[in-house]
Hints:
Layout: H1 2-22, E1 59-62, E2 65-68, E3 77-84, E4 106-108, E5 116-122, E6 128-135, E7 145-147, H2 149-154, E8 162-170, E9 206-213, H3 216-228, E10 234-239, E11 246-251, H4 257-269, E12 276-279
Parallel strand pairs: 3-7, 4-6
Antiparallel strand pairs: 1-2, 3-8, 4-7, 5-6, 5-8, 9-11, 9-12, 10-11
Helix pairs in contact: 1-4
Amino acid sequence: xxxxxxxxxxxxxxxxxxxxxxxxxxxxxxxxxxTRIPDLPGDAVPRPEPRSKYGNGPNYEVLGKHYTVMKSxxxxxxxxxxxxxxxxxxxRLTSNREPYDMYAMTAAHKALPLPTYVRVRNLSNNxxxxxxxxxxxxxxxxxxxxxxxxxxxxxxxxxxxxxLVEVExxxxxxxxxxxxxxxxxxxxPVARTPDPAPPQIDENRIYVQVGAFGGRENxxxxxATLKGASILSAFIVEDKSVTPALYRxxxxxxxxVEQYDIVVEELANLGISDPYLINE
Length: 280
């Protein structure tokens, strides 16, 4: 146990150092320590737009890693970690050659076509916003979207710097054979008037799902693998809402991004990829 605790500490330290190294010096809110602006902008209003002549690949390379731009945003839905970027990049050109405005409702994504409108929901408090993706990034391990300062402020994640989110494309594209990572068949939402303020969600009820099995025996095997690796918070949920019942293996509750990063790293060491965040 002592060896495992040491290893987890080293993982956490490496994640922290990686984050510090990836965030450019002096980036942050408009003024040091500020987490407010006079007037928060309204959400981006989705509308059909032609694809940008810039930033749409189809392939590109950053820091020695290759990325492929999705052919379509249709059906894209993913959960993971969001970050945000601020004053250091304010006024600089984004990947589609528009000036970055930290007060606008925009975002950066590694693979969605530019531009794409997405709905971003904070899994910890259920706040939801709509942003226009016009930039590339974040190029940090285990991060799926980089929000503007205003967008992060509306989701209440400026102080924390990161947050666990769900990102779903509001797509005007037609279905295609392109299937992004963790794509679902759920139809993309259409533009509509904002909903009333959502109820608060208990952040202690966020979990990582690492398998759904039709038989209890396979679920027990997955659970034994996790327990054998000292992931002691793993458990099985029998889902009788479907027929036949499914046995879902989960880890949690997850309390924050740092713990999520550690769990994902541990799962990767076991050869378990593509974990899925759920909250209920």
